[in-house]
What does this fold into?
Amino acid sequence: NHPLSASSCYNPQEDWLTGCCAGPLRVAVLRFGLPDSSLHVLVHSRENWRPEEWKDYLGEAAPMLRGLHWSKGPNRYPDFNLDAYNEKPQDTYYNKVFLMMALALRHNYRYIVSVDDDVFLPPNILVRLITSGAQAERENCGVVSPLLQNGVPSVELWAQKFLPEHDRKRLFQCFSESSVQYCDTFQSAYCTSTTDPALRRKAKEEIVGLEEVPNPWSAEAWYSSVRRSVKSDFMGLHPVRGNKTCMELAFWLSLPLLEEVWKKDVEDLPLLVDSAREFPYFCNNVYLVPSDLYHRVLQDPGLRLGGADEATLSRVLHRENKAICHLDGSFALHPAYSTNPNFVALETTAFSIVKSIANRILPLTRVERSGG
It folds into this structure.
């Protein structure tokens, strides 16, 4: 049984296409059918606690909805990790991941699929991701993710698969012309003229020997350099996250691909397995993970040190020699990281395009038919 746990869902009308997955799930049920799966929606505010509206937007997928779950306020799960519980008693993100694990244990879910609220996941890829667990375990994968146009470490895989050569060269040249002056290793953010001197000093202690970007761009050389140079767990450094120009270039290059991707049937996509363990870090915007492995992530003593669960997940994957795996030929859109000052505008643009595509696929909901 596969839970689909959607983080940071605010309301069904605004989020039905993104991480909350109402639209993609409805298309998936109508066009493909789904295996035995459940949806758990994590919400932050009382005004968005609207289960009947969620059911309407889910439509034919409504039987999957196992509940809305409150993920704000005091942490309610000290048994997972007492140190993290005491360190982060009111942290909404930690509350969400503890709640996600509690639901998996309560319902005896073998796999967890976590989808952030700013990820646009095509229906066919959603189905393939949900059903990838058994194959992933056979391949010794710790996580499985679709290819994101700004994912770390999937951006190069995505570019090789989807971009024509001239566009791929433009993107990779942008990477090669980027800075290595990072001042926030968790956010992969560059130093600026207003950066606190204390952060600069901390970054110098964390990053030793990262002196240049490969030119021509080489993903293998970059990830190897990051692994050697970064002395903390925060090894998610990449120009597609730190360089606003590169992040937006990847976004605009991805938009012409959306309609074709959303209309595809479910395909038997092979797994791209990082068998050489070249990837030092996994940015967890959207992924499947075995529940027992994720339980060990939340029990890890280093969880309390920060980086949400992302840094700890990457550390546990390395410690247990588990591969970071991707669905070959898949594509999910993550418009931008929140460090980009234009991220709201980029998300709005993406939403408008994907909504237009989805509306041509989906019949109207009850709310839409009534003019609501």
Notes: The radius of gyration is 20 Å. The chain is about 45% helix and 15% strand. The CA atoms of residues 5 and 114 lie 5 Å apart.
